[in-house]
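Tutorial handout. Part one gives the primary structure; part two gives the three-dimensional structure as tokens.
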Amino acid sequence: MMVFEGVGRVQQRGQKMRTLHKGETEYAGPSVEHWHGAAPDSSAQFFQTSIGVTTTLWMEEVGKDDYSGNDIG
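Part two.
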């Protein structure tokens, strides 16, 4: 995915949260659990594409510690 506008955040399960700015990218391979959204003080537009047939599996809600970058779990 790529941040098209604004400031975004992304985290793959077990790794640190990253802040992404316009033009920056993040790759999450098939079946890699991750979340992405806007930074708390910004909006964000993402461009994302998938190759092949995919199904979205919604997991648990992102916790405040993950969203703020305080937790890598």
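Part three, for discussion. The first strand starts at residue 2 and ends at 12. DSSP finds one helix and four strands in the chain.
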